[in-house]
Specification:
Blueprint: H1 3-13, H2 21-26, E1 28-30, E2 39-41, H3 43-51, H4 55-65, E3 76-78, E4 82-85, H5 89-100, E5 116-120, H6 132-150, E6 154-158, H7 166-178, H8 181-186, H9 188-204, H10 208-222, H11 226-250, H12 260-263, H13 267-276, E7 281-283, E8 286-289, E9 298-301, H14 309-324, E10 328-334, H15 338-350, E11 357-363, E12 366-367, H16 384-402, H17 408-428, E13 436-437, H18 440-444, H19 451-468, H20 472-478, H21 487-496, H22 499-509, H23 513-532, H24 541-564
This protein binds one RNA strand of 77 nucleotides through helix 3, strand 9, helix 14, helix 15 and helix 16.
RNA sequence: GCACCCGUAGCUCAAUUGGAUAGAGCAUCGGUCUACGGAACCGAAGGUUAGAGGUUCGAAUCCUCUCGGGUGUACCA
C-alpha cells in the first residue's frame, strides 16, 4: 500500500470548487518535520490565490470534507493554510501487521500502470579495461533497472557495447605494428589494452601517421575487410569474457548486450530513409540533420562515407522500438554527451519516434581531489578492478579486527560484500549532475551514511533473533499485535510503511539517492529504537513479540532496499 | 563567441521540484557502556544558500544582471 498515493487520492476528492485536482493532489507530501505530523497537504495556499479566497478558510473547508478514515483523524490546519495529517497508531499497527507476511513489503498493490523501460547503461568500450569512469553508469543503471523491476515494470537491460568504433582501428594498428605475441598468449585483454594505449599515446603526441593508419583500419573493418573482420572475431570473445567477469563480481546482469557492431548492417538504411523523408540533407560532403540552423548539425554520415555513433544511436532507437515497444528509454551516460542526446532525441522525434519517452540520465564526471579528471599518481585512470580490491581489502581489515571469531572464509565473504557495498553506495548516495569528486576516504568509509551502516543495522537485527533463538518466520506466522507506545517504535513504523512511495518517487525522478536517503533514515530510526527499546528483555511477552516483528520488518526493508542498490547483506559481520 | 550545467557548514553532499526554524556524513569538541553487536547512540559548534535586484502569502529552488567554476560546440564515442 502506497500511503502517499492513497492520501493524494483522498485529498484529490476534497479539492475545492474550481481548483485543479492534479495540482491539489501533487501538493500532498511527507512532512519535513515530525511535529507537523506525518504528511501535509499544501495545496490551499496556491489555490487561495487563483480562487481569490482566504487560504486558512479554504483549508478549514477542506478539513471538513476530506475523509481520511481509517488512516487518520481530521487534519489540522496550521500556519498560512497547511493541512497536517498524523497517521493513527492503530492504523499503522494494522498496516504493519499485514506487511509482516508480505514478501513484497507492500509493493504488490494495484499501483500505477506498468510500462516497458529500456535501460541503456554501462556501455563500455571493449578491449579497454573498465575504470572508475564506468562505475557510475553501471551502478546507477543497474539500480534504476532494479527499482523499475521492483515496481512491476517490464525492464530491458541493454549493454550498448562500444565494439565497433575507432578504438578498434587503433587496436588493429597496434596488432599489426607492435604486438607482443607472448603477452597476448598470456593475457589477451591486457595486451590489447596496451596496444590501444600505445596508439593513443602516439596520436596524442602528434603522430599523424598512426592517426591515419588507425582510421584506415577502422574503415577496412567496417568495409568487411577479411583480415580485420577475422581479427575482430578473434578479439571479441576475450574482451567479452573479461567484461563478464567484472559484471559477475558486481552482481550486474543484462538482458541483451547488443553492441554497435550489431547495428552496423542497418545504418545505410537509416541514412537513406532520413534522406528520403527530407529530414537529412547533404552538407560539406556529409549527410546531416540540422536540428537548429544556428548550431552544428547532427551528422549521420561522414564525408568519407563512414557512419558514426549518431547513426548507430538512431538505428538503436528504431530497433528497440520495433523489438520491445518501450514507453521509455533511459540512457545512463556522462553529462558531457548532453548535446548529443538533445540532438539525437530531436532527430528521433522528427523521424516519427515521438511516443517513446527518451531520457538522458546524466551524471557528472569523476574528478580527483584537484578537480581535474581523476587519475592516479602514475597518470593512469584507476582501474575498476583495483578500486574494488582496495575497498575489499579495507573492509577485510575491519572485519578481521572486529570479528575474529568468524572463520576466514566467511570473513572474506563479508569483506567482499561490505567493500563492494561501500563503493556502490558512495556512488549512488549522490546523484548530482555536477561533477563528482572521487575520494578514497569517502569510497572506503564505513561510518556514517554508508552501506556499511545499513548492513550493520541488518546484522544487529539478525543477531537479536540468533540470541533469542527465535526464527523470523515464526514471528511472521504469529502476526503479533504491533504496539507503538514508545516514540522510537512509532518512528520506525512510520518509516517502514513509506517504502512503496519512496520507490515510486525514485523511479519518477530517476534518482537512486532517494532510496539511499530513505534507507539511511530508516536505519537511523532503528538505531534509536535499538538503544531505547529492549527487544528480548522487553517488559512483557506481547511487547517482545511486537518488537521482534518491528525488527524483522526493518531488516526485511533494509535488505530489500539495499538489493535495489545492488548491495547485499550478511547475517554477521 | 554561443549553448548547457553548477556554486549550500572547514570538507563531501541532501533538501520529495515554490512550503513552516536549510538537513546529513566526515573532521573538531564534549558526553553515553557490564552491551539484544561501540562498524553504535546523545549533544555542542559550524550558514546573509557566491553577490545584487525582482516575482508572492512563502525563494537554495523561478526571472534579470554580476562574479566564479565546469562541460560541449561538423565529421571520436
Amino acid at each position: 500500500m502506497n500511503v502517499l498515493e492513497k492520501l493524494r487520492s483522498v485529498f484529490g476528492d476534497a479539492t475545492p470548487e474550481g481548483g485543479d485536482r492534479q495540482v491539489f493532489m501533487a501538493a500532498v507530501r511527507p512532512s519535513g518535520d515530525p511535529k507537523f505530523g506525518d504528511y501535509q497537504a499544501n495545496g490551499c495556499m496556491a489555490l487561495a490565490k487563483t480562487l481569490g479566497k482566504n487560504p486558512r478558510e479554504l483549508a478549514a473547508a477542506v478539513r471538513e470534507v476530506v475523509d481520511l478514515e481509517p488512516m487518520a483523524d481530521k487534519p489540522e490546519v496550521a500556519g498560512p493554510g497547511f493541512l497536517n495529517v498524523r497517521l493513527r497508531d492503530e492504523w499503522l499497527s494494522r498496516t504493519l501487521a499485514e506487511l509482516l507476511g508480505d514478501a513484497s513489503l507492500g509493493l504488490s498493490g494495484p499501483g500505477t500502470t506498468k510500462k516497458t523501460v529500456v535501460v541503456d547503461f554501462s556501455s563500455p568500450n571493449v578491449a579497454k579495461p573498465m575504470h572508475v569512469g564506468h562505475l557510475r553508469s553501471t551502478v546507477i543503471g543497474d539500480s534504476l533497472a532494479r527499482i523499475f523491476e521492483a515496481l512491476g515494470h517490464r525492464v530491458v537491460r541493454d549493454n550498448h557495447l562500444g565494439d565497433w568504433g575507432s578504438q578498434f582501428g587503433m587496436i588493429l594498428w597496434g596488432w599489426k605494428n607492435a604486438r607482443d605475441a607472448a603477452a597476448y598468449e598470456a593475457d589477451p585483454v591486457a595486451e590489447l589494452a596496451r596496444l590501444y594505449r600505445l596508439a593513443q599515446e602516439r596520436i596524442r603526441g602528434g603522430d599523424k601517421g598512426v592517426e591515419e593508419a588507425g582510421r584506415a583500419e577502422t574503415v577496412k573493418l567496417h568495409a568487411a575487410d577479411p583480415e580485420n573482420r577475422e581479427l575482430w572475431r578473434r578479439f571479441m570473445p576475450h574482451c567479452l569474457k573479461a567484461l563478464a567477469a567484472m559484471y559477475q563480481r558486481l552482481g550486474v546482469r543484462f538482458d541483451v548486450e547488443l553492441g554497435e557492431s550489431f547495428y552496423d548492417p542497418m545504418l545505410s538504411d537509416v541514412v537513406e530513409d532520413l534522406s528520403k523523408r527530407g529530414i537529412a540533407e547533404e552538407s560539406e560532403g556529409a549527410v546531416v540533420v540540422f536540428v537548429d540552423r544556428k548550431k552544428a548539425p547532427f551528422i549521420i554520415r561522414k564525408s568519407d562515407g563512414a557512419f558514426n555513433y549518431g547513426t548507430t544511436d538512431l538505428a538503436t532507437i528504431q530497433y528497440r522500438d520495433k523489438t520491445w515497444g518501450p514507453d521509455q528509454i533511459l540512457y545512463v551516460v556522462d553529462h558531457r554527451q548532453g548535446d548529443h542526446f538533445k540532438q539525437l532525441f530531436a532527430v528521433a522525434r522528427a523521424w516519427g519516434y515521438d511516443k517513446v519517452d527518451l531520457q538522458h540520465v546524466a551524471f557528472g564526471t569523476i574528478l580527483g581531489a584537484d578537480r581535474k579528471p581523476f587519475k592516479t599518481k602514475q597518470g593512469d585512470v584507476v582501474g575498476l578492478e583495483s578500486l574494488l580490491d582496495e575497498a575489499v581489502a579495507e573492509a577485510r581489515k575491519v572485519v578481521d579486527s572486529n570479528s575474529p571469531d568468524l572463520d576466514p572464509d566467511e570473513r572474506a565473504r563479508v569483506a567482499e560484500v561490505v567493500g563492494l557495498g561501500a563503493v556502490k553506495y558512495a556512488d549512488l548516495s549522490q546523484n548530482r549532475i555536477s561533477d563528482y569528486v572521487f575520494d578514497w576516504q569517502k569510497m572506503l568509509a564505513m561510518n556514517g551514511n554508508t552501506a556499511t551502516y545499513l548492513q550493520y543495522a541488518y546484522a544487529r537485527i539478525q543477531s537479536i533473533f540468533r540470541r533469542g533463538e527465535v526464527r523470523p518466520e515464526d514471528v511472521r506466522r504469529r502476526r503479533p499485535a504491533i504496539l507503538l507506545s514508545h516514540p522510537a517504535e512509532r518512528g520506525l513504523a512510520a518509516r517502514v510503511v513509506r517504502l512503496p512511495e519512496v520507490l515510486e518517487l525514485a523511479a519518477a525522478e530517476l534518482k537512486p539517492n532517494i532510496v539511499t536517503d530513505y534507507l539511511f533514515d530508516l536505519a537511523n530510526a532503528f538505531s534509536k529504537f535499538f538503544e531505547e527499546c529492549p527487544v528480548l528483555k522487553a517488559e512483557s511477552a506481547e511487547r517482545r513479540d511486537s518488537r521482534l516483528a518491528l525488527a524483522d520488518l526493518t531488516a526485511e526493508t533494509l535488505k530489500f532496499g539495499l538489493n535495489l542498490l545492488g548491495i547485499d547483506v550478511v547475517d554477521r559481520m
